[in-house]
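Below sits my pick:
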Amino acid sequence: MNKRLKFLLLFFLLFFLASCAKEPTLNVASERAEHFSLDYFDGYKILSIREAWNGDLEKHRWLLLDSAFKEHELHDSLKKMPIIHIPVKNVVILSTTAIAFMERLDLLDKIIAIENRNLIYSEKMQNLIDSLSIKQVGSGNKLDLETILILKPALVLTFGTGSSLYDDYPRFKTAEIPAVLTAEWMESHPLARFEWIRFFGVLFGKEREADSIFAETQKRYDSLVQLALNAAKKPLVLTGYPQGAEWLAGGGGSYFARFLQDAKAKYIWESNTQSGTLTLGIETALQSGGQAEFWLHPSLWTSKAEILQHEPRISMLPLWQSGRIYQSSKRVGKNGSRDFYESAVANPDLVLADLISIFHPEILPEHDFVYYEIVE
């Protein structure tokens, strides 16, 4: 083989290897989640968050750098991305749902600051707040940025709404504080929301644990879905509550509408494809609700007297006499916090079991409610 041919072969081999180095060694497609994805490379990963809030068009990307990999070894184009060193050593949490995921992964001791303890149900977290003197730093326009700067966290986990009044992520970017957006609340399926446990597993070096927990929970959830298929009928369900002249409820494309479908119930507004909040005239809602057999989530009200105080016309609904009104208020902390708005996202199988037991008690006769109780 002549020297020129050897040179050409060597050149093309080096070119091929260089090209391959730019490609991810593994692209991890989420099984259910649509709002986060991960690309794996040698020594680092790229985390992408899509549509962190309704109407968000920005592309959010972070470079997750393994502890053994040095920043100076990165290609210059990668150095422009915000860098998060993993596994994350400590974190500031500005979302109660994040606490639920971290509790399932036994990561609560990584938390060094929270938004407000009065919003937290977890007894373990409350005890850690006391024993470790964990700081409360607020959020949005009440964010205590100075305290966070003093703490020098490895990461802040927050979320966005698209409102400059409430969003604190831009302030973290300006202050050069490492921060990542979470968007599990944007997912339209309960298991998609739960799959964000993998997001936490990657950040904190517990990928295997997160994958195992997700697989086990998904299996239990799917088993309950199959069990619900044995129900003789699909009861019609009303959700939401009156507020002034309007009725607010989740759209037919929301994650809770999927919960109802999987529990073999018929959502009163299932034909609506909206994933966010559905706003209706109260007269329209009450007329539609006249055929409903169950009513779930009547605002934060926990008694019939309280409901009538706000909207007396609800007593005209047939379901008012049957008493089939359920509230997610079974687990309430001393501070008034509701566990449903904290841990339910990380336990979709428990929520589904509650719902099946409400609509089809004959299917789960021994079930003890976790989140729901009847309104009396």
